[in-house]
Structures
1.
Amino acid sequence: MFKILVLQALYNLSDEQTEYQIRDRLSFMRFLGLDLAQRIPDAKTIWLFRETLAQAKVVEALFTQFETYLAEHGLQPRGGQLIDASLVPVPKPHNSHNEHATIKAGTCPTEWESVRPPSGGRKTPRPAGP
């Protein structure tokens, strides 16, 4: 049952989510030493187990001991990390109201005609293939 608390801590899961994920993921079942024929602890059972440990004030000691064991074996638990989650500003169009209305009408604003490439801004269609 302690392994279930480890999964909850690593994946930031509620009791209900944990029950669902154990049923859904074979990797979770394998980690917990369960097979498809065995009963899965329900959310209430998980909650009762955690509450019993909390009332006995041993949750922190168990996790400290677990982290020490992992460190002795050269492992470091990491959960809930974001990788390359940088925000990138999106360019905003700066068209005037007149330009916007012209574009909506399906034509090109006259101010843009002088900026257009010599080909007229259109690509020449080519047949597909080598």
Note: The chain has a mean pLDDT of 81.
2.
Amino acid sequence: MSRFDLIEIPAEFSVQRSTPFFTRANVPPALLERHNTAEGVFGQICVFTGRIVFHGYADLDAPEPETTRVVRAGAFIVTAPRYWHRVELSIDARFNIHFWSNRARTERTMYSTRQS
């Protein structure tokens, strides 16, 4: 079991924002590159059709992922605050993301990229 398997959203957190459904046609390019969620924000990636491959990195400069997970339709994966990751999509992938926090963050950034 890795530290990644121990991620649990705290009970007092709630969804602060959700994205629309993404496919290969409209996924923001930043999600396909290494990025992370903001401090205090958990990301829940929910796959509705197809699959995504989630790559998690120990830090911004890690050359290889420390974990790679395949998330299939009907499943989800949670990423901890400030955890560097990226996703790959199958041709038929359709997913969205819920951002969980213990405080209202509707006007604040929920994730950052290498360029941020």
Note: The first strand starts at residue 14 and ends at 18.
